[in-house]
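Model: Ready when you are.
Researcher: Fold this.
Model:
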Amino acid sequence: MPELAYINGRIMPIEDAVVSVEDRGYQFGDAVYEVIASYGGKMFCIKEHFVRLDRSMKELHFPEVQIDEIRKAAVDLFSKAKIERAAVYIQVSRGVSPRNHSFPADIPVQVVMTVRKIEGKNPPIRETGISAITVEDFRWGRCDIKTVQLLPNVLAKQKALDAGCYDAIFVSKDGIVREGSSSNLFILSEGMLITHPLTPDILSGITRSLVLDICREKEYPVQERFFDKSELYGAVEVFLTGTITEVLPVVKIDGRPVGNGKVGPAARMFQEGLLGRLKSE
């Protein structure tokens, strides 16, 4: 079960993979990406991830790309790695050319992929929940595009770790709660599940969409609307959602307990619902 890399059609061990120093993803962050999780040897929500990847490239005005060819290459790489529980990372940059801010003409995009084993969240984390801090959102204005420009996310995550917490929650300058450093955010308040609406300020998460689908199936009350830190602090439950994160309960924020400070029934229900989707796909 080797961990493998792919660069523009070539497959190799990850330790042998290198890209040009003039790759625009490296020099400008001029690249987009997706991470697809596998369960039991099958990639989950592959269609949805490639729809989003295609959208990200179009939003950044990449040249025309055969998205189906990238998808086939990803599936082939995954099958060769033979890792049942894996993270399949796909990155597409605008290409390799001498450094210049303007778009290069007539160069192919550069496609890089890796397949790595997922160790998974320890059961104690899901049973006890995590702690988080809030940080000011200083990311660029198009968080809906899944680019590799993640330095604000990296700094926020490290700030949380330095504070002895698991993650950071972005809050806008005017007090609107956005999302986690690498995940979407839901709160349960007065019997209503609430999450930030889809705007350029957050990513349209695949797992977020699945949770909303589960709400519709179960007729669980849900709203996509803005909310502030006071509503976040007063929530009965809070949880993060993401491809690798799945549904992860938050039991303490900025040193304050969420609800009774324990993992609540809503987070458990949505995690179970997500696992049910995995089995049925």
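Researcher: Now this one.
Model:
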Amino acid sequence: MRLTVIGLLAVGVAVGLYAVGRLHTPNYTISLFGQAGLDAVALKSTLSSIALGVAGLQVLLALWIYRKLPLAGSPPRPVPLAHRVIGFGLFALTVPVAVHCLLAYGVQLTSLRVAVHSLAGCFFYGAFAAKVLLVQSRRLPGWALPVAGGILAILVGVLWYTSALWYYNGFHLPAP
């Protein structure tokens, strides 16, 4: 039952962000730390690339915590705390980027890339809400927290691919 409630809350956060983003009138002149237009896109691409690297570190720490990291042995006591602190930092890093995207562009479905990016952004914060609640609950299946963390890492990758990589690749996604 708890898992269902947490899942519904996560969906509620994602749907709420989607609704706000669809109803909001985009303001393309909004700045991010004083940067607007293409300068803001460049800054968001840099911040997103840092977030991708930190998400990779989070996956490695989680694998170590769950003793699934080959040759690593048992994690020292500070590793779970480091995972939480770094996770909070990752979340804090994504907030200005997400707020800028929401205010400047809203949720758009104009192309496949933009739709995937917009929806992945909404799902990211829903999944983050679920993971925070899962961390607080000790009576859930053992697989729930790693699945939520894995979903977060995948969503960071999707968001980076559909934005920063697109920017770094001359406003095109790499051809398959």
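Researcher: Key takeaway?
Model: The first helix runs from residue 2 to 23.
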